[in-house]
Fold this protein.
Amino acid sequence: MGLVENILKKIVLQNAIITMKEKLSESVYKIRLQSESIKKTQFTPGYFLRLGIGIGNDELTIKDKVRSYSVWDINQTEGYIDLAIATDSNGIGAIWTKDCKVGDDVYFKWKKGNFIVDDSADSYLMIGDLSALSHLYILNRGLLDKQVDSLVYHHNQNDFFDDINGKKPFNYYQFEENAIDKILPIVKQMETKMKGEKMVYIAGDSRVCLVLNHYLRRELKWNTNQIKTKPFWNPDKKGLE
Ligand SMILES: Cc1cc2nc3c(=O)[nH]c(=O)nc-3n(C[C@H](O)[C@H](O)[C@H](O)COP(=O)(O)OP(=O)(O)OC[C@H]3O[C@@H](n4cnc5c(N)ncnc54)[C@H](O)[C@@H]3O)c2cc1C
């Protein structure tokens, strides 16, 4: 292991242990990370982790040593975080997810950003693909008593998993990747039913984020602070952030 990785491990990243691994659906795994430091973290729904999945593997480039994963659930009394990781990408993150075991050490860094719960609006739209489902679930749990409509899509209907409370609160569609011609008409329809102050969360495929962002800003003249968007992956790139 090189000097940079040693510094990353000892100074920059925090350490946790995998204490649970479970298959949630055909291609999605739940991974539980346990650490004393999680008990003391200041947490807002929407925070995510930079996970050092390739730390210690000398065959990987620096870019392939880290992937981002959203916090699906957190228990600060017991000191654990649950992640839900989709493995259709078949990249280094997917391989790590399939191979990791209970008892393994992991290194991570907290990331906050702006794709976090904001309860200042009256009605919400949640839009995303399978990779964003856990992130949309935790945001949705923070928006009790709000009007929430949704469009979650994936090419395989059997891959949608329940939220941690055993519920499936969204509208789930079986669409191929980047099915913007199917997504846009549904979004247009849902938007007309939104009441009061409106806000949208869009995550997952960067192409879908881009088109919907343009539509809402340019055609519907929404303000940028009403549109929360976070590309999770891009077909031409590996490990987006
Ligand atoms: C803020 C943030 C939070 C995220 N949270 C989650 C999360 O909670 N759960 C989760 O599963 N992912 C999440 N992601 C995506 C995750 O970081 C990885 O990009 C993803 O797991 C793919 O990594 P990989 O190493 O397997 O593939 P990569 O090596 O990054 O990519 C390999 C190939 O697969 C393609 N690809 C990547 N993702 C997908 C996909 N979903 N469907 C189809 N093709 C894909 C890439 O374009 C590339 O061509 C998040 C990303 C960000 C930026």
The chain has a mean pLDDT of 95.
